[in-house]
Amino acid sequence: MTDEPTLAVADLRTHFSTRAGLVRAVDGVSFTLGRGEVLGLVGESGSGKSITGFSILGLVDPPGRIVGGSVRYQGRELVGLAPRDLRTLRGREVAMVFQDPMATLNPMLTVGRQMDLVLAAHGRVRGPERRARCLDLMTRLGIPAPESRLAAYPHELSGGLRQRVAIAVALLNRPSVVIADEPTTALDVSIQAQILREMIGLVRETGVAMVWISHDLAVVSSIAQRVAVMYAGRIVEDGPVRTVLRAPRHPYTRGLLDSLPARARPGEPLAPIPGTTPSLLARPEGCAFHPRCARATELCRTLDPERRESDGHGFRCHHPLEAA
């Protein structure tokens, strides 16, 4: 028995060299993920969540590149791995569910043909068994009439069904790690709730480790055991989901929670976080959140806070909120 985590990300840094300057999209991200564990990666748009997911799978295209850090899958280093080895790994050991299912599905091929090609590419399942594997997974994901869906083209399916198919494609080869990049954002609430229930059941049944990327704290609270809050390319708070969401230490996490509609009383306006996320071309000195923070002092404007931790609850803040 080994204590090696399924996925270990350490000080990951992904930069984009542009004409306007250097964009530090991922700036020192670290976390670990064990078997059967779901980590929620949350934050506003532009915080670096999706680029973190793409970096783990080596899917960052020029002018972006990983400039530092480590991504270890079951002890094997993925940063710097040869492209051929990475292609063998993707979909088989580590898979990704994209926000837009049409980024996964080919509009020119039937669903069944695409799923068959995914299984054939990694050679894990023989021809006669592939259809049975596809039908079984589609049934478990709540796709009605799976036989007819295999013969359908993506445009013939609803948005919810396309997303279920995209999830099924990611899970076909029974990977150990799945990166889910806001897979339910564009769906209505009822379909979103169904997919979340199905994903929770699959995680428990198969033991897959999952990074669930989202801007929706309510969704993350229902599926994840741990949460990491990103801002300006960095994780500013992380820990057990109940601890972080019930007693946040970082003002940014508090702001995200206070802006949720469910927390407002009827007739009262929401409490948004003032200002906008900073440009990663001109990251503020000191704490990146200080221009939007009511607790900011001169220390926050000049010195970048180090990470502190208490009982597995980590945060980067000079003036953290009181612990509950």
Automatic annotation (TrEMBL):
<dbReference type="InterPro" id="IPR003593">
    <property type="entry name" value="AAA+_ATPase"/>
</dbReference>
<dbReference type="Pfam" id="PF08352">
    <property type="entry name" value="oligo_HPY"/>
</dbReference>
<dbReference type="GO" id="GO:0005524">
    <property type="term" value="F:ATP binding"/>
</dbReference>
<dbReference type="GO" id="GO:0005886">
    <property type="term" value="C:plasma membrane"/>
</dbReference>
<protein>
    <submittedName>
        <fullName>ABC transporter ATP-binding protein</fullName>
    </submittedName>
</protein>
<keyword id="KW-1003">Cell membrane</keyword>
<keyword id="KW-0067">ATP-binding</keyword>
<dbReference type="InterPro" id="IPR027417">
    <property type="entry name" value="P-loop_NTPase"/>
</dbReference>
<keyword id="KW-0472">Membrane</keyword>
<dbReference type="Pfam" id="PF00005">
    <property type="entry name" value="ABC_tran"/>
</dbReference>
<keyword id="KW-0813">Transport</keyword>
<comment type="similarity">
    <text>Belongs to the ABC transporter superfamily.</text>
</comment>
<feature type="domain" description="ABC transporter">
    <location>
        <begin position="7"/>
        <end position="257"/>
    </location>
</feature>
<dbReference type="InterPro" id="IPR013563">
    <property type="entry name" value="Oligopep_ABC_C"/>
</dbReference>
<dbReference type="GO" id="GO:0055085">
    <property type="term" value="P:transmembrane transport"/>
</dbReference>
<dbReference type="InterPro" id="IPR050388">
    <property type="entry name" value="ABC_Ni/Peptide_Import"/>
</dbReference>
<dbReference type="GO" id="GO:0016887">
    <property type="term" value="F:ATP hydrolysis activity"/>
</dbReference>
<dbReference type="InterPro" id="IPR003439">
    <property type="entry name" value="ABC_transporter-like_ATP-bd"/>
</dbReference>
<keyword id="KW-0547">Nucleotide-binding</keyword>
<dbReference type="GO" id="GO:0015833">
    <property type="term" value="P:peptide transport"/>
</dbReference>
